[in-house]
Specification:
4 helices, single chain, Glutamine Phosphoribosylpyrophosphate, subunit 1, domain 1, 7-stranded antiparallel sheet, 268 residues, 16 strands
């Protein structure tokens, strides 16, 4: 299946180091060669780069790897196709507008019989179950709040309810952001790490590349990175429990919820 990469920070940060390892998995160190994409939030704007070529050989990916775009929320995806042909319109992440903000979504999994009734407010362009999920989520979020813009907690509650429905239909790991925070659902496999002072040295699994984060950060910086499979081999990544929905804000996990349980606050 596909792989996901997300970043949520308390200050705008570049993702060049993490992306270097993630890029290699798109056809070099792993089999996810059916396209890739990445989205950066910058203020009210969003930069989205997509390419149906494998990320390991994509000139666009090389551009992104060497371009230190600073963002507080980033979502990236490398694809191993299950539904839909290899084409630009089927390449994640997907973007839509709701309440005057861009929303970004990427999915790893397979929902073979998911054909929801859509009212036309959000319509898939491609053929993937992933884009149908995104349109369905935004349609339901829009309907639930009826023009009222919800806060993070309210969004988290509704997303939890909707994700319970999705989880019963198949595997559905996803990352979702509106630029304010980042939601992550672990259906089968996701891990995360929070990097904060005192910063240390990190080494990538997929590239012989090392960085000393103390050289490129300030003591107040905090960065959460979420990935399907940990990107470094000398840091402690925390696996998310299967069947859990997480809310990341300002570079830290602030709440998570499991099936049938109440939201829990997480220190830090």
């Amino acid at each position: 299946m596909c792989q996901l990469l997300g970043m949520n920070c308390n200050v705008p940060t570049d993702i060049c180091f993490s992306f270097a390892g993630f890029q290699a998995r798109g056809g070099a160190t792993d089999v996810h060669g059916d396209g890739w994409g990445i989205a950066f939030f910058e203020g009210r704007g969003t930069r989205v780069f997509l390419d149906p070529k494998p990320s390991s050989v994509s000139p666009v990916a090389e551009l992104v790897r060497g371009y230190p775009i600073h963002s507080k929320n980033v979502i990236a995806h490398i694809r191993k196709a299950t539904q839909g042909v290899i084409a630009l319109e089927n390449t994640h992440p997907f973007m839509r507008e709701l309440w005057g903000r861009y929303w970004i979504f990427a999915h790893n999994g397979n929902l073979p019989d998911f054909s929801p009734l859509l009212d036309g407010s959000f319509t898939p362009v491609g053929e993937t179950d992933s884009e149908r999920v995104f349109c369905w989520l935004l349609q339901n979020i829009r309907q639930r709040f009826d023009g009222r813009v919800p806060n993070r907690s309210m969004l988290f509650d509704v997303l939890h309810e909707l994700t319970l429905d999705l989880s019963a239909r198949g595997s559905c790991n996803y990352l979702l952001s509106n630029g304010d925070c980042l939601f992550a659902h672990c259906s089968t496999q996701l891990s995360y790490i929070v990097r904060q002072a005192p910063f240390a040295v990190a080494h990538l699994c997929d590239q012989d590349l090392t960085i000393d984060f103390s050289d490129v950060t300030t003591p107040d910086d905090r960065v959460a990175v979420i990935a399907t499979v940990p990107l470094t081999d000398n840091e402690e990544w925390l696996p998310m429990p299967v069947g859990s929905l997480w809310l990341f804000a300002e570079g830290a996990p602030v709440a998570h919820r499991h099936t049938g349980r109440q939201a829990e606050n997480i220190p830090g």
